[in-house]
Amino acid sequence: MTMVTPSLPNSQNIHRETLANGIVVLVYENFAAQSVVVRGSFRAGGLYETPEKNGLASLTAEALMRGTEKRDFNQIAAALEDIGADAGFGSGNHRNSFGGKSLAEDLDIVLDVLADSMRRPTFPTQQIERLRGEVLTGLQIAMQNTRYRASRAFYETLYPANHPYHYSGRGSIQTVTDLTLDDISEYRRSVYGPAGMIITVAGAVKAGDALEIVRRHFEDWQNSEQPATPALPELPLLDATRRSAVALPGKTQSDVVLGAVGPSRFAPDYLAAMLANSILGQFGMMGRIGASVRERLGLAYYAYSQMDGGLGPTPWYVMAGVNPTNVDLAIDRSIDELRRLGDEKVSQEDLEDNQAYVVGRLPLQLESNEGIASTILSMEIYQLGLDYLIEFPDQINRLTAEDLKAAASRYLTPDRLVIGIAGPALN
Amino acid sequence: MGEVTKHILKNGMTVLLKEVHSAPLVSWWVLYRIGSRNEQTGTTGISHWVEHMMFKGTDKFPAGALDKAIDRAGGSWNAQTFFDYTAYYETLPVDKYELGLEIEADRMINAQFDPEEVESERTVIISERQGAENSPTFWLGEEMQAAAFRVHGYHHEIIGDMFDLENMTRDDLYGHYQQHYMPNNAIAVAVGAFNSEEMLAKIRALYEGIPAGEQPKLFSRPEPEQNGERRVHVERPGGSAFIDISYKAPPASDPDWFKLSILSSVLCGPSGLGGGGIDNKTSRLYKALVETELAAHVDGGLVPTIDPYLYSISATVRDGRTCEEVEAAIQREIDRVLEGDITEAELARAKKQARALFAYSTEQVTRQAFWLAFSENFGGYQWFENYVQSLEAVTLEDVNEAAHKYLKPQSRIIGCFIPTGEDEFSFEEVDE
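The joint structure predicted for all components is written out below.
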């Protein structure tokens, strides 16, 4: 068999370099495809905005490509679209993300546009007002979206108003309407900078060439005012199960989000919780939740669980879309599964199946340049080390049923949960 | 990248193989030549429901066993029902790809359709439809199709009409399965890090023993010519207005499809074949609608179909603006195109974009295998292999000719979703 078995990205084939201004650059060569993908991350986001200016981090990120000192809006669009390339920015709570994709020979253009947008945006008034209108239209549509509203109800109930996770990154119609050009400009100027920035490149490009291009566009960037990462407020413990429901006219299905605060990526039991979550609502047709809510009862088209495991105390939750008459039953069954996961050790078969699953899916995750670049970026953000993927199977296979039970019972408290519901009728 | 080889098994099953050794994976697709286009009133949505039942077990792999087997192997699998086909796939690490071959051979003839599972799936599918109904654009899309196709099967949504979902029987579903699931009605494709000779031997061993069935007679009624513009209004609660302008378009096998595709790229931005799209801020309609603050978003494109379908332009109307204003702005751009003002530069850009998007779409074995099966279904996998060349061959004259042939008011359908204002309400409660 003439087979190529590329090794996983590791310390031998990931080129990692720290630029003089602190930017960490990671390059992975992959000549199997014609494209190149950039994925980056830097310190900015919801943590660096106040509740009154909720949505500022996101609007600023979206406004970056509306005009720079070097190119106006149309020139930025043409620079990318003329060559079939794409680039953009996004905003999270702790970090902003950016990325791009092009044919390998066009990497310079993509990195030039990204650097220019971050470092020299001009935020032209007319462009920003146009963008604001588009964002507001998007928010009006989202406010009619049951998944969005159920999720909002969940987050707003789980996290208190003094916590950044309480808020949608997109802001509200009120706050986005009130944000000023000065807010945007000042946010970019004070928060954006090279400290804490990570840039990964994966694709049909030599590491030396990619590094040289990144260096040329980014290494002379300085910002001495970059703030330290703000501390998150303490989270109060839930004392009871709280439901928050919203009824939207004209809907035929209800969406439910149910859960609690889960581990951060840095928690010692993160991997145990991740594997427990796989059993709960991922493995097979969406794990035990899928089997109970969808397969056995036929209640829902989708039902699964998710554990975000980010830089802070992100949630661990079940999501389902169900007929309004079945909301309570779906909630009860889901809570039964949460309780079971914390009360009973999973079977050896369940444990081994899920260990094989999370380890075995790596080749599929790493097939594309997007998959490779995103994975290497996560390894750097969470300080997992360049050999993380090599060590990963051992770390997973070492976990026991007892570890999973302990993690589940620590986070998923069946009588102290938050439930967000949005649908046609109140439940 | 290897060449595609085509083989017809003794029972009539079409097999396409393509070796790609860039990642240690194999993607295996089996596509049946049956989709919503062939469904009759009373059993609309049956192809999609049968697709769901294919995950409900056989004697060899009981319900639930398959999901676990695939996940244990580190693979992914899924299925999709479209107007023109129903298709299934497994993408697995190369040392485990035989599992995919075994699953599809087994469920080609041994799916159980347990009556209890049929009933349980009925509510799941109704829930799937209700989930879609929560989106305003679903209602508009459904009305647009119904208005565009009075006779042809493209008139109903793939998910099916609610009445049919509530009333279809287990016998209907099983009958559909028996009538259409057979090797001589299937196109199978493998793309990945295998050796073609070994792969073909394994496929023969698993599939050649499955007897051919009677070639199914497909229910298919051609759509009569449309003789005048049709208009649709949908009024429901929603966050904003949407407009959709659709023109009758040629089938994918028609060379005109590529001409219209270039035209669409100029008007609305390029549509790729999956694998990462790009923005459309340099497209004519973005400039005419979004930059003028009439719309928050615009896109458009052609769907590659067996029978003539639609070329659609869709826009999200900005708050304070109306469908009529957006429609007038779109018409102005259509008029410009009809006057023949597309430039060589725009044509060249559309082609460069197509080259890049095509490169992105071929980076994953799953997507390559899909497109080979997909295009083989309407006449030949070469459609996909030659996709870029077909677009490269399009001239400015071709684009102008296609514009005049297809962008006619007499053969279009204009739809508007108008949001009605109704109040929401909410409450919170604590379970003690």
